[in-house]
Amino acid sequence: MMIGEVAEKSGFSVHTLRYYEKIGLLPPSHRDSGGRRSFDDDVLRWLEFLGRLKDLGMPIRDRVLYARMRAEGDSTIEARRNLLQTYRDELAVRVASLTETLEVLDAKIASYDTTGSPSTEPRYDQDTIHP
C-alpha cells in the first residue's frame, strides 16, 4: 500500500506519516523500484493504536518510547505494560471526573425541565456543584 493510500485510510497526513517514520513511530517502509514508500496492511492497525495513544494524551516522546520497545520484542513486554498501565490509570481518573460532570449537567438540565420557566431558575450562587 502506497503512502497516499495509508494516509487516506488512516486519517494521518502523508507529511505526518513521513515524520512518524523519521522519528521511529513507524517501522521503516519498504521502497519500490522507484523509491516510493510501500506499507503492509499491519501499519493501519498500528496507526489506529498510535492515534488512540495520542487521543488519551500520551506525549510523542512516550509513543516513540513505546514503539522502540515494541520493536525490541518480547523482552520489553513488562515495560510496555507498565507504560500503558500508567496512562490507563490517568485516563480512568479523567473518565470518572467527566462522568461526575455529566451527572451534574444531567441533574441541572432535569431541574430546568421541572421548573417550567426561566424566572424560577435559582441564582448562580444558590446552585450546588453536586446534585
From TrEMBL:
<dbReference type="InterPro" id="IPR047057">
    <property type="entry name" value="MerR_fam"/>
</dbReference>
<feature type="compositionally biased region" description="Basic and acidic residues">
    <location>
        <begin position="122"/>
        <end position="131"/>
    </location>
</feature>
<dbReference type="Pfam" id="PF13411">
    <property type="entry name" value="MerR_1"/>
</dbReference>
<dbReference type="InterPro" id="IPR000551">
    <property type="entry name" value="MerR-type_HTH_dom"/>
</dbReference>
<dbReference type="InterPro" id="IPR009061">
    <property type="entry name" value="DNA-bd_dom_put_sf"/>
</dbReference>
<protein>
    <submittedName>
        <fullName>MerR family transcriptional regulator</fullName>
    </submittedName>
</protein>
<keyword id="KW-0238">DNA-binding</keyword>
<feature type="region of interest" description="Disordered">
    <location>
        <begin position="112"/>
        <end position="131"/>
    </location>
</feature>
<feature type="domain" description="HTH merR-type">
    <location>
        <begin position="1"/>
        <end position="59"/>
    </location>
</feature>
